[in-house]
Structure prediction request, 935 residues.
Amino acid sequence: MTSPARWRCSPTWGSSDPPDSPADRRAGILAVMEIVTPARRGADHAGPTRRARRRPAPGLALGGLVVAAVALLPLGYLLIRSSEVGLDRALDIATSERTRGLLWRTGLLAVSVTAAAAAIAVPVAWLTVRTDLPLRRFWVVATALPLAIPTYVGGYAFIGAVGPRGILQGWLAPLGVESLPSLYGFWGAWLVLTLFTYPYVLLTVRSAVRGLDPSLEEASRTLGQGRWTTLRRVVLPQLRPSILAGSLLVALYTLSDFGAVSMLRFDSFTRAIFVQYRASLDRSTAAVLGLVLVAVTLVVLGGESAARRSGSYHRLHAGGSRRASVSPLGRWRWPAFGLLCGLLAVALVVPLAVVGTWFLRGLDAGEPIRLTTTLVGNSLRAAAVGALASVAAAWPVAVLAVRRGGRLGRLVEGACWVGHSLPGVVVALSLVFFGARVVPSIYQTHWMLTLAYVVLFLPQALGAIRSSLLQISPSLEEASRLLGRGSFATTFRVVLPLARSGLLAGAALVFLTCMKELPATLLLAPTGYPTLATQVWSATSEAFFARAALPALALVLLSSIPMAILVLRETDR
Amino acid sequence: MLNGAPDAIEVHGLHKRFGREPVLRGIDLRVAEGAILALLGPSGCGKTTLLRSLAGLERADAGTVSIGGRPVVGPGVDVPPERRRVGMVFQDWALFPHLDVGANVGYGLPRKERSPDRIESALDLVGLAGMARRQPGTLSGGQQQRVALARAIAPEPSVLLLDEPFSNLDTTLRVQVRTELHHLLVDLGVTAVFVTHDQEEAFVLGDEVAVMLEGEIVQQATPAELYAHPATPWVAEFVGDANLLSAEAAGGSARTALGEVALLAGGDGPTTVLLRPEDLRLVTGGDALVELTEYFGHDTVYLVRTADGTVVRVRAGAAPTHRRGDQVTVRYDGPPAISYVPGSAAPAADATTAVPAGLAAR
Prediction:
């Protein structure tokens, strides 16, 4: 990944915002989200004001429209498929007791995970930025690291440790302990999802804590308010939007998570959809359930944006910001240190140690390691094709959105974000229907899997390309045109070379996300094409913990690359 | 200073370093009750740090601070900012973006005093009556500053601190806002300290001006005194146009490139003499040459090169009466001049390092 500095979103050409303006910071948060994975339909409306007024080249517009159509395909086909059931039947399914139960359980899980993640992340963000915590710089990096563990790997680690036939059970068996309290169900899913998603809140809140204008706190102090009152009346209200934004990421992740809830046998929407599809011939029910889940996702998105609109939260004045002072923790210094050690142990050290232990046990038992090279090859190939296709699809959309703007640009870009707010299992399911019914020739081929990756991860490539395009002054293109180069030649000789880092960053991002993707790969990969992710899942489901260890370690390793870049970028500032 | 009443602010030997860099090096300062003090100095001289130390936003390494006769900084004493009864207007206003104007102004009031009437009267004071429900972001720069001011004075602090109060305003707005603020401070009679790097602001607003350089207060005096009797050549140049001429002193006067000039204080030997441009006069004919004329409307400044190559600035009222290339004579037409003994260990960072001769006797 070249020059991460290029991802920074300022200066944005054509936008009139001063540096460190709200739009700039919003773009910064957006960039965080894009890197970390389930990026979102985050509306960065700081569009260029200065753009070509001519009509877009017909080829570009056509390309953009095709990409938009592809992005909308899963949702559209799901609607068609559900409508075949008939409205009455669909309503029956959507309001059945089973659906209501699913709604309740999934909602409860999303709310509890989000609340717990925020409860962990907000104090940790404050501790690691604004206090004299021992080894503070180490904690800045360490507390974000659990994000590098995919939730299904985390689930596997916990089952491998305290599940039946897990490590702890093995230790306790000689002592006559027959069974441990079950990890399966709500609490297991809650624990795993909380531990491995709280960094979403942490990263967004931490960047907001860094961006706090210290003179506001000082003003509050000179107005006679003590440290705690200031925290409550000034700091927390300032952090509210970032807490909301991070919580939204966690809530959306929980709603769409498939791996951890399936492994921990918690009956949430994604698992129910999957089971419904696998276990019965009644695929309409799965389609309707998918639509209900999409509706829940939309409610969450709507709620967040409504909450965010209800206040303006930006620095009123650009100048005069000084570095915030560090608050001494006093006698709470070491207790805080201890708490962070505990967090790190549960969210990082123990899971890695468990996976490592199973890996060693597997070696002892002669588990074949050669198999893994095939897995790695399969994963690499699928991810590489997915990344290339996503970048190729994102290019016309980004150019349309940044350079031409207008209704067409907004429409096309908006369509691309739709696919991204859909849970992977829903996209996969819809494409299964579509493939089997409409295009049987590509069903169960790599084409189908690539299509799913493009729908799911296109916005990540889009975000990276978009911000690098925003940094290219339109006058460079205009100069090229005035020097006699056509639009095609200008694109190849000026725009593409300058946007190179964005293209590479986008590709790398999509590549790594594809490697980790589970539900779509599980449903759409050609028969007999196991990948690292599907191997971890299937081996864990059958309690072959040793067999899952090596692919899990490989995935953690790969996931830590974008994490490392992200955290380094963050500490640079 | 007024008939034995305690000073509103008293600072003794205040030291502060950031890392190994000393920022305040033994500050002594007194501000009388109800007076307005300007802290004037170039950027990086420590004036903002001093202001923040008064507010309790920086912790001094050594020295004492009393506000209204009450020690707030000293050995074993460090009163937190919220208990110093000090109001502060920040350079960037620091209005709380999540609160409307009224809530911003009421922020520092105790809960039971936080009534709409009280807030409205504070807003009325700064000419913003009826704006309580507005969001700070919808106000102009000048209005935001007035909100910040209303917020700072609403809890009736014993001292008001202002950090570069005009630096975030357009130049066109500055003069107008300055006059408004001046009116308000005088009407309220509140003790105020403000930081500025602009000599004009300091002179217009300040009852007294403390000039700071490299962490020390070089001179504290009324603006008129400061202008007439600057403590060092550096101060002389910092607070206005100055001709600093090297000269030879003997028997109460000095021989300069412009001829004999009467000195305020005696002393013999090499010296540096301060001649303000408005105390110089041009006479047609002579061996000095007008090199440039700069017309400002209310007056004109001539750059004149004397026979020995010394260049002086001469300020005269009204329109230019001499042109570039004219032969003239420069005459000193002012009071007995200030002189500085060069080469002594004065704090000035100037090449013409010097201390005032005979000023101690004034």
About this structure: Chain B touches chain A at residues 55-57, 80-88, 90-98, 107-108, 135-137, 144, 151-152, 155, 161, 167-168 (CB under 8 Å). Residues 344-355, 357-362 of chain B have pLDDT under 50 and may be disordered. The longest helix of chain B spans residues 171-188. DSSP finds eight helices and 21 strands in chain B.
